[in-house]
């Protein structure tokens, strides 16, 4: 079968090749993949995976063989695959713990957008009550950002979306952002929670805008820049502020089910900024690296 594998050469970061068919264990379902979702991190930091390994973590498709131990969804079920290894192939063996059943009315391509981006936003934002809280989402035009803006607004937060340019602000107010900024200096607001996907100097800026008792959650570092705090910036009076890292790789089935339910109810939309045939994956990767995509890249497995 065909698959996208890790390529450490200059032609990389991924390439098509033929690989062996997966052999599911008794506790794994065999899923025929219809759509894959690309993520900046797994492509930009491809050196963290071995060359030749089937890459990717997010996809959607149909169960063609249920787990033989009776766990998980039955044959014929439409499923989203989230944070599961080796997902960018025509067929994948997956633990049911990493699957979410896709309700009627939800497009499989939209379901493929959830995975890393949707679950990350969901897990961070549910850590505290957001009702009437001030929340800052950095890198709001990306996949995580689009989901985070919607989920924070649904939870009753006052949402500020920060983007890199005016062109990347399109649609964010419609998704629930109360304010859309291109520079944090444009506001004097203080935030109870910051979900940061950018890293670099922006973290130090966000720290200076953090309210007492507030937390910055670091979920990405797309800027690739270092963070330097001015002398004395980490000292303060009042209720303690904090910076939290993120690396939750526990099974995603429960969160996928919740997110798909919100989609089915029309309360959450998939931020698909680019969709095409997976044969055009090289162009899609270049567009993602060039910051030309607002939201997620979804490719059809044909």
Low-confidence stretches: none
Multimer state: single chain
Give me the count of strands: 15
* CA(first)-CA(last) distance: 12 Å
Structural class: alpha/beta
**Major sheet summary line:** 7 strands, mixed
Characterization of this structure:
This protein has 302 residues and is α/β, with parallel strands linked by helices. Helices cover 22% and strands 27% of the residues. The protein contains eight helices and 15 strands. Strands 3, 4, 5, 6, 7, 14 and 15 form a seven-stranded mixed beta sheet that branches. β11, α6 (201-208) and β12 form a beta-alpha-beta unit. The longest helix has 12 residues, at 143-154. The N and C termini lie close together (12 Å). The relative contact order is 0.16.
Summary, kept brief:
This protein has 302 residues and is an alpha/beta fold. The protein contains eight helices and 15 strands.
Provide keyphrases for this structure.
single chain; 302 residues; alpha/beta; 7-stranded mixed β-sheet; 6-stranded parallel β-sheet; 8 helices; 15 strands
Summarize the topology:
Elements (H helix, E strand, L loop, with lengths): L1 E5 L7 E5 L10 E10 L1 H5 L13 E8 L12 E4 L9 E4 L4 E3 L6 H4 L3 H11 L8 E5 L4 H12 L3 E5 L9 H4 L3 E3 L9 E6 L4 H8 L1 E9 L23 E4 L7 H12 L7 E6 L3 H9 L6 E5 L2
Parallel strand pairs: 8-9, 8-11, 9-10, 11-12, 12-13, 14-15
Antiparallel strand pairs: 1-2, 3-4, 3-6, 3-15, 4-5, 5-7
């Amino acid at each position: 079968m065909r698959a996208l594998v890790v390529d450490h050469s200059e032609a990389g970061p991924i390439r098509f090749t033929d690989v062996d068919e997966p052999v599911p264990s008794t506790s794994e379902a065999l899923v025929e993949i219809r759509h894959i979702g690309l993520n900046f991190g797994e492509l930009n930091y491809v050196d963290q995976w071995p060359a030749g390994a089937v890459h990717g973590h997010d996809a959607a498709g149909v169960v063609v063989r249920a787990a033989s131990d009776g766990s998980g969804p039955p044959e014929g079920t439409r499923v989203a695959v989230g944070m599961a290894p080796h997902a960018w192939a025509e067929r994948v063996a997956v633990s049911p713990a990493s699957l979410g059943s896709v309700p009627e009315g939800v497009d499989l391509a939209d379901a493929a957008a959830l995975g890393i981006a949707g679950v990350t936003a969901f897990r961070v934002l549910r850590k505290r009550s957001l009702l009437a809280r001030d929340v800052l989402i950095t890198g709001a035009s990306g996949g995580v950002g689009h989901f985070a803006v919607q989920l924070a607004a649904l939870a009753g937060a006052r949402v500020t979306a920060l983007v890199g340019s005016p062109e990347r602000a399109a649609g964010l107010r419609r998704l629930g952002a109360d304010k859309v900024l291109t520079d944090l200096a444009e506001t004097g607001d203080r935030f109870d929670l910051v979900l940061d996907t950018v890293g670099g100097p922006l973290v130090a800026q966000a720290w200076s805008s953090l309210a007492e008792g507030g937390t910055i959650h670091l979920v990405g570092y797309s800027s690739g820049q270092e963070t330097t705090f001015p002398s004395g910036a980490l000292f303060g009076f009042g209720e303690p502020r904090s910076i939290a890292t993120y690396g939750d790789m526990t099974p995603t089935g429960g969160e996928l089910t919740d997110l798909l339910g919100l989609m089915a109810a029309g309360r959450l939309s998939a931020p698909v900024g680019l969709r095409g045939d997976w044969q055009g994956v090289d162009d899609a990767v270049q567009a993602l690296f060039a910051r030309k995509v607002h939201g997620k890249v979804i490719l059809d497995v044909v």
